[in-house]
Write a structure and sequence with these properties.
Length: about 375
């Protein structure tokens, strides 16, 4: 079946080489879409592009590769997510030829923003840095990032996909061709800053660290607000780790309404760093959900030192999201970040509503049971 070429999001150069003409054409499309205004139905159009990209990626694969890449939507494997180096489900980049790898990159570009795609490529590239630092190229391998597709990516369908490897776990659920759930979403970086070599100075998650520290330093200047915003202990890692379902964390920190207008803007921009890893159409959808739930319910908490190189942790909570950031390991040189949804990780709420609406109680129960 003929697949229309998906409209990609803007992107920095990928790790794969392209013939000059193809690369120029891709960049022209990227530039044209980068500044296009969001129209009514833009969210649905972006989902259609993502779906077309997923179909194109699958159609590029041979039978043995499809066996690795495809799973039923109700597979328990959908909930087996992690961010450490380990054996993984799915089809690794190392099994792909150049054309197939570009098809996977096109799927990522159809889903992520320019910033999100750039961070993704940089995190993968850090495996080469670690391979040299640790003298272990087998374990630290940029080809060990895996694609999984759950169900059938159809225009009006309900399906899911993930892309995962060391320090990356992105999970997307599409429901009825209309709605998207994009959590859990984990980005990490080791080293936090590349000190030597051709990538010296690279800080993949530098903004996530610097902008939060700037806000925390402002709050620390006032003893009362410091006492409210700062936690007593600094966790060594994100508290929700790779739990499939997580219990609500203690509601600690300083509330939105206790911040000045300038601090509120700082916090909002920090939130957007995480949600803005996805395309503008999907980011807009999530920001609207936060606003509908009420910004006044957002809480920010910081723990640890305020100087670069000191271990630190922060989290931001609202009714529809949780952001966690931890940078304690390797002398605060190894950040972990995660964006989660307390009700809708893996699209739980969306799937439940969809199948109840379509009177398919058996399907709803099967997917919920798989995630337990």
């Amino acid at each position: 079946m003929e697949i229309a070429s998906p409209a990609p999001a803007t992107a920095t150069a990928t790790a794969t080489a392209r013939p000059a003409a193809r690369q120029t054409a891709l960049w022209l499309v990227c530039l044209l879409t980068a500044f296009a205004p969001l129209s009514a139905g833009a969210h649905e159009a972006a989902l259609a592009n993502m779906t077309a990209a997923a179909r194109a990626a699958l159609e590029s694969l041979d039978e043995a590769q499809l066996e690795k890449a495809r799973f039923p939507l109700d597979s328990e494997e959908r909930f087996d997510w992690h961010f450490v180096p380990k054996a993984r489900k799915g089809l690794p980049l190392g099994d792909l030829n150049e054309e197939q790898r570009e098809a996977v990159m096109a799927l990522l570009m159809a889903t992520l923003s320019e910033a999100g795609f750039s961070k993704t490529i940089d995190i993968i590239a850090l495996e080469d840095v670690l391979a040299v630092l640790e003298n272990n190229p087998e374990r630290r391998n940029p080809d060990l990032y895996h694609l999984c597709v759950f169900g059938d990516p159809e225009a009006d369908g309900t399906w899911a996909w993930s892309f995962e490897g060391h320090h990356l776990s992105m999970n997307f659920t599409i429901v009825g061709g209309r709605l998207l759930a994009g959590t859990p979403s984990f980005f990490g970086a080791n080293p936090g800053e590349v000190r030597d070599g051709p990538r010296a100075g690279l800080r993949v998650l530098g903004d996530e660290e610097d902008k939060a520290r700037e806000l925390a330093a402002t709050l620390a200047a006032d003893d009362d607000r410091r006492a409210t915003a700062f936690l007593d202990q600094t966790p060594r890692d994100i508290l929700t780790f790779n739990q499939v379902e997580f219990e609500p964390l203690p509601r600690e920190g300083i509330g939105w309404n206790d911040l000045t207008e300038a601090e509120q803007q700082q916090l909002w921009q920090l939130i957007r760093l995480y949600i803005g890893r996805h395309r503008a159409e999907f980011e807009k959808h999530e920001l609207e959900r936060i606003d509908e739930a009420g910004r006044e319910h957002i809480v920010f908490a910081w723990a640890g030192g305020l100087e670069a190189g000191q271990g630190h942790y922060y989290r931001i909570e609202g009714p529809t999201f949780l952001v966690e950031y931890a940078n304690v390991q390797n002398d605060a040189h190894h950040p972990h970040t995660v964006w989660r949804d307390p009700q809708n990780d893996f699209g739980r709420d969306l799937l439940r509503e969809h199948w109840h609406e379509h009177h398919d109680e058996e399907a709803a129960e099967a997917v919920e049971a798989a995630g337990r």
